[in-house]
Structure formats: C-alpha cells, structure tokens
C-alpha cells in the first residue's frame, strides 16, 4: 500500500520491512508442501518433466536450447542419509546438497559424480530406449553444493516413466543408485490457455514436439498415483475426469482437450497429467491455474498511482484448501474415505470415527449430512494417514480435527473407514474476500507465484500487493503502477487467501500498460489518410506505431479487420497518426493498437492502447441548436431510416443518458437526411457531441461520435 506520512519514517520503514519479511516467509512455508527446495527455501511440486527431442541426432546442445522457455521445477530426493535438492528443465537436471555436508566425496556430489536415466538403475542395459548414457555433474558457479546434469534424451520413449540414477563417485567403487525420482518422458510442449475458470467445457489447445498421437489427459493436484482412467469419484476437487485429445486435422502436432473443471477449486494450480497411450501417466510439466476472477476491466492502465480495476468474483466459502479428501471405490456420495497428504492419498482408520467426523468430511466435499459406515467393503492400499480422529463438528476440514499424527497408527486396511453423505449443495467457491490480494507481475517474467516471492515490489517487475475491496460478486482494487514498464503486458495476479493462506497467487488476465494519457473514442471517416490526434507520455517516439483492428491480441485468433501500421509524428505529449480506413466497416468501433518500439524491434509487444476509433458516416451536421424543437439537415453516407442521432456531453457508446433524446432520420434525397432534435433541455453556451447509431437503438452496433459538436 502507499506509504503514510509519519513523524517516524525510519521506524515505519522497519515495520514495513518486518511485515514484508513475514509475508515472504509465509508464502515460502506453505503447509501443503510435498517437496522443499533446500537452496531457496521454497515448497514445490515433486515431479520432474523431461521431453523427447524431435530429432534423434539433435544431441545435447539442441536439447538445452529447446529447454530455455520452460520454467524451473524443483524436487526433493533422498540419497543414503543425505537430502539432495534438485531442479529440472525439460532436458537438464540439477542437484543442490544441503549446508553442513562436509565430505562431498563420501556423502554428496563431486566432479567425479555421474548421472543417467534408465528403466532400472540396477539394469545393465541403459542404452536408448532403455535409458541414456551417463553424464558428468558440473558445479554451478564453482559451488561445491550445487550441480547440473545434462543428458541426451533423444532416444527415450514418449509416455514412459524412467528412474533417475546417480553414481556418486563415477568410476569409483560406489554402485549406481536409484535417487527415487521418476522421470516421465512426454512430447507435450505447451498448452493454452494456462488459466481456466471452474466450469465445464474448457477447451485447451495442446502443442506437441512431433505428433501428439494417442494422448489422453486430466487435471490433478498431483499426477502421482493417478492414471489415465476416469476419476474414482466424478466431481472430486482434486482432479478432473480423463479425456482423449482430438488431433487437429492436418496438424498432428496440435490437439484439443475438452475438460470439465467445474469441480475444481478456484484459486489453485493443477498439473496437466498425460498418458501417451502406454498406460503410464505422468506430469506434462504444464500447470493450469483455476481462476476465481472473471471480467477484469479495464484491460489497460497507465503507469501511475491509483489505477483502478474492477472484476467479478464468486463469494468465498469457508471450505479449506490445505487438506484434500475424497470418497474412493464408491459413488459420488459414499465410499472409502481418503485424505491427500505428503504427496499421496491414504486412508483413515475407522476406530472411534463417528457421524460427527463424517459430517466434517461431507462439508469439506461440499455435501451435506454425514454418516460413518464403519469399515469399508473395499480396503485401501498405501499409507493409513490418520487414526484417533476427533472432531467437534465446527471444523471446515478433516485436517483441523485432532488425531494421533500423520501416519501414526496401529490399524490395518481392513479398518479403513467409509463415509456416506446425503446430497450436494450449491456451496460458494473459494474466491474473493477482504483478505484477497492483487498485484501485477511482468508477463514475460516469472510466474505470479515466483514473482510474489522473488521479484522486488514496486519495481518494473511487479507492483505492490494490495487488498481487494467489495462484497458479493463485485470487487475492485486500486493499484500503484507508477514504476511499471510502459508498453508491456502484466499478469493480473490474484492470491485468493492472501499472504498467510495456503494458496499461491495465479494469473487471471493480462493488463497492458498504455502510454496514452487521454483515452476515449475518436471519429474517423471510411476513407484514406484519416488523421488521429494521440496524447502520449514521454515513452512515445517516431518509432512508435499504431494500427486499427477488431482486437490487438492475435495470439488466440487473427483480427477480423485491421489497417496497416502508421508511425507517430510529433513530440512531447502531442502526436498524430494517419491511417487508411477505407477498408473498414461503417458504424463499427475499432481498437487503436500500439507498438511502442515499432515492428522492426521486439522489446515491446503490441498492446491495446485503450483508445477507440469509430468509423463515422456523417460528413456534415448543424453546428448550432436552439433551446426548442428544431429540424436539422446532415449529410450521411450509408444512413437509413433506422439510423438514430442524439446529443450528449459524455461518451457516445449508449451508456450515458443523452442530453437530446434519440431521433430517427428522414430521407431528404441522396445522402441528405433530416432530423428533428429536441433541444429544450440543453444549456446555453455548452457544446454537445453529435452521436450517430447507424442501425438504431435496437441494432447490433453501439454507435459512436460523428466528428461534430453542436452548441
């Protein structure tokens, strides 16, 4: 938030720094932490992504090059008695040993260490497709605790999970060992969009390195322990149903997924888990954020303080998000109770598990009722995470109840408890509260989650955290954007439960930082050489280009109509551009798209400046109007008896009550039209915009300014 003036600035600065450090630590030390990066102190996903190179002869250099655009993932592994923390690119793996490892040759990594991936670390055949040739570990920046490993994965088989093997002393006497890391080979290179709402029918475009083939996929909290088969319980909050990808005709490297995300929790990330048709499921390396916010407006702001944004957001519920439960091997309302902890699903011992505990489970699932059925008819496998569970009934999740401790029990799976719930309720989803925080992070930089921790607040990389304000579904925020980079896109990042909750922030939209100081709608004619005046800050130059289009972002679909780019001419804050509008549609409004450094450079993307251009068809109009009913004549090409005109002191988009009511045109011959204007409510000496709506109030066009003012 903006700093308040005080007589003790040093003390206030120290308090702010202490608060920021608390937020920083809370963001790093999330309670749901399946893996921990020792070097950075961050909780991360425990899965590694590796992709197959499309060209078997590409070699290591080509693999490294193709990995540059893929974000880091961090994992935790156990080797002997030494915890090693690693990070992985799609084709490069790194290790970091913890502080306090004195003898790196005996207990950790050294320059002699070698790593490889294989079907089995103990097997003798590690040649492709059974594995890779070993590669040597290379110290990071002369460190004795941080190492990288690059391997040639070109021969690995897509859709197969491999083991990451390590030979701590290379050619020495120590054997090759299994690190416990599963390396899944996938051809999935990207997926769009990376953010979806919690609704059914979410279409996602998958791009593969080579043919996508027999691909199926689903979203899940973790891909560990899941399969390509359907979810055990339809509608569970930890994963979606698996669906088969549909290959795009004539483009085998592209496929479409249609996922039902209606059961997922807004405000959290899910892994895209894939099966390449071999019956093995693994992480694709693509994370999908389920957004809680929709309809963010406006899509552009200035690099200034107090920039307002408004958005729609569902009411927040009290359902927790740090302990996940499901009912397995049953129906949507009953089954063996399982809880997700430490990266795996496990059962709950049924001793002394009553209807009170069952009601807490049903509430957590968004259901009502709750009955303990005793021992499940279908025993589980894996860990028994909880025993001796005792709830008061007021808890919002099973994890808040008392119990003997995680994985502390003397029960067997024959005592796994089953639960019966009554029916579903339309419970509100976890979205926005007064604790929710918003900030902007440079779209070309780290993700929202990484930027929240690692990017300096108030710089060009991200804005400060600010609290949401609002109630119900309508929420607003005022951002301090003065230090942001003009002409760049920023991710609108939402942290639904704030700095101290378990959720990580995610991107829900893109916001463009416009250099224009005056926004609104300008009028042009459907002709060549149409001049537009543009008020721009000091970031505009003669290299800056603008063009008109139905939309400025061509990443999703090409613009239906677009003019050629025109360079700005001028200096200071007053510039002009001349565009050819002869091919545009009469009565249509277009976006003024801006490229700060022009098409010949790529430092800044094309963005929506916030300025609009309306293609007017009025060539002449009256310039004076008496305070009475008055007939006027105007020249208008393409007008009809359905065309309306009116006067307003505001904008001409139909949202402002006109000062002079709408009036339909009457033909006077050729392009001449007459109109009867009621000027009895106008104020003497004030000028009003003459607005024209080509197809009238009941048509599809919004209308816009005519280029003329009447006074």
TrEMBL record:
A GO term from the CC aspect: membrane
PROSITE patterns registered for this protein in UniProt: SRCR_2
Keywords in alphabetical order: Disulfide bond, Membrane, Signal, Transmembrane, Transmembrane helix
Domain SRCR: 325-422
Positions with biased composition (Polar residues): 1-10
Pfam family name, one: SRCR
Keyword Signal: yes
Domain of life: Eukaryota
Segments of skewed composition (Low complexity): 11-20
Transmembrane segments: 70-89
Region (Disordered): 1-28
This protein's name: SRCR domain-containing protein
Species of origin: Polarella glacialis
